[in-house]
Amino acid sequence: MLIEHILGARVAGHVVPQTLRLGGAHVAELLPPEAASGSPPAAPGASLDAAGHVLSPAFIDAHVHLDKALLLGVAEARGPLEPRLEAAILAVAALRDSVALEQIERNAERVLHRLVRHGVSAARAHVEVDPAVGTRLVELQIALAERWSERVALQLVAFPQRGLELPNMLDLMHAALALGVPVVGGCPYVDRDPRQHLDRVFQLAERYRAPIDLHLDFSDDPDRSLLGLVIERTLAHGLQGNVTIGHVTTLAAMAPDAQGRALDALAAADIALVVLPATDLYLAGAGEPGSRSLAPIERARAAGVRVAIANNNIHNPFSPFGNANLLAAAWLAGITRRAASPEARKGLLDAITHAPAQILGLGAHGPTPGAAAHLCLLDSEDPDQLALEAPAVIATLRAGQLVYRTRAPTLR
Ligand SMILES: [Zn+2]
Questions:
Q1: Distance CA 116, CA 404 (A)
Q2: Which of these, 186, 329, 348, 379, could form a disulfide with 391 (CB 3.0-4.6 Å)?
Q3: CA of 244 relative to ligand 1 center, distance in Å
Q4: What's the CA-to-centroid distance between 406 and ligand 1, angstroms?
Q5: Local confidence band at 222 (pLDDT 50, 70, 90 cut-offs)
């Protein structure tokens, strides 16, 4: 249903609830209550009564895996799972031959439903390109992206989870990109020669004129950091603004001065950072007492790095915890980083709205005149508290269309 008016919504930056007039896929204007009361909504059914709840820009998930989501039970049935990156990679790879594509597709759709229910209007999905399945997961997700385009925009990444050294992998990456996948993924830490892996990824990016999104530095050992190699190649290829790196838990383990230098270098090369709390906290920082294995979001932002917070894996050996709830990911990151100040929690919200939109190359969206009407209505009365409360989503709009509305009563 195309919404024409949203009545009585609390919007950041406005003291009193606003009425929004939408003009198709965009927000036309915001009216204060007294101005809005004289012009009742035109058609019945075309208005959404916000009843004083917060209206936020819809959330954007900069990094999610649909093709290995909800596999925790299947993996557990094969034996106990260990909270280690290598063990998780092996556990999921072992399922590739046995879990039917129909099951993968059903699980992916279940996650897409959850994303929409959690207020997400666009997501970048890393699609496994693997010798065991060739490009079948790519084809499957291109079809899914088409089928779901009115509810959530999917941007696919060709992702070599088991590296580029296995037989036929480079051909498969070419095939995936030739099928129209717009982003080159990479995972240099799984290969014997990470330097060569990076060279290949940057060559693919140049050949297909595609941005790069790397899984990088998922380790507690700063000496294993590949940041320098990535920065060097980003500058050499002139790809500033087109490279994104996910995880980078090494940043959390660096001494403060080394961390500061690394963040400055990332900002100078305009490389975006995506923090994945549900996985980073589960698989890294192991041992006792362990560490807070999450890249320093607020310091990165202060250094000028674009930072997103994203879901990554959903309910599988990489991330048993989580339910595709991006606001909960920001909430978890906030607690872990003790990022509770007004400035820090603004940063947490930016990391699930505007920063990821920019990483995906999307235009402006949110409750602002002229912006795309990708919006979500939340069970909260204070726009400044969202990252602290992680409230439930009441409704999600994409391009002015109501794509989700809760049936549950809202809390007061
Ligand atoms: Zn990932």
A1: 7
A2: 379
A3: 12
A4: 29
A5: very high
CA 281 remoteness from chain centre = 16
Distance, CA 61 to ligand 1 centroid (Å)? 12
**Least-confidence region, from 131-135, 221-225, 267-271, 285-289:** 285-289
Confidence of residue 40 (pLDDT cuts 50, 70, 90): low
Cβ burial of 362 (10 Å; 0-12, 13-18, 19+) is middle
pLDDT digits (tens, 9 = 90+) for 228-265: 999 999 999 999 999 999 999 999 999 999 999 999 99
Q: How far is CA 92 from CA 67, 99, 176, 209, 385, in A?
A: 10, 10, 20, 31, 37
Nearest to 57 by CA among 368, 328, 359: 368
Mean pLDDT over each residue of the chain, to the nearest integer: 94
Q: Is the dihedral of CA 249, 253, 258, 263 positive or negative?
A: positive
Give the CA distances from residue 341 to residues 108, 364, 384, 385, in Å, rounded to whole numbers and listed in that order: 36, 26, 10, 10
CA of 289 to the centre of ligand 1 (A): 26
Distance 107 CA to ligand 1 centre (A): 17
Q: Give the environment of ion ligand 1: residues with CB less than 5 A.
A: 312
Task: Round to the nearest angstrom and report the end-to-end CA distance of the chain.
Answer: 27
Instruction: With CA atoms as reference, report the closest residue to 328 among 316, 317, 314.
Output: 314
For residue 386, the CA-to-ligand 1 centroid distance in Å is: 25
Residues in the chain: 412
Q: Per residue in 354-406, pLDDT tens?
A: 999 999 999 999 999 999 999 999 999 999 999 999 999 999 999 999 999 99
CA of 273 to the centre of ligand 1 (A): 13
Residue ranges of alpha helices (H) inside 94-193 are 101-117, 136-147, 169-178
The pLDDT score that the predictor gives to residue 37 is 59
Residues 300-325 pLDDT 10s: 999 999 999 999 999 999 999 989 99
Distance 129 CA to ligand 1 centre (A): 13
User: Would you call 301 helix, strand, or coil by DSSP?
Assistant: helix
For residue 402, the CA-to-ligand 1 centroid distance in Å is 29
Asked if residues 369 and 11 have their Cβ atoms less than 8 Å apart, the reply is no
Number of H helices, E strands in the chain: 16, 16
Angle, CA 408 vertex, CA 402 and CA 412 arms, to 5°: 105
pTM equals: 0.95
Stretch (H or E) spanning 203: helix 194-208
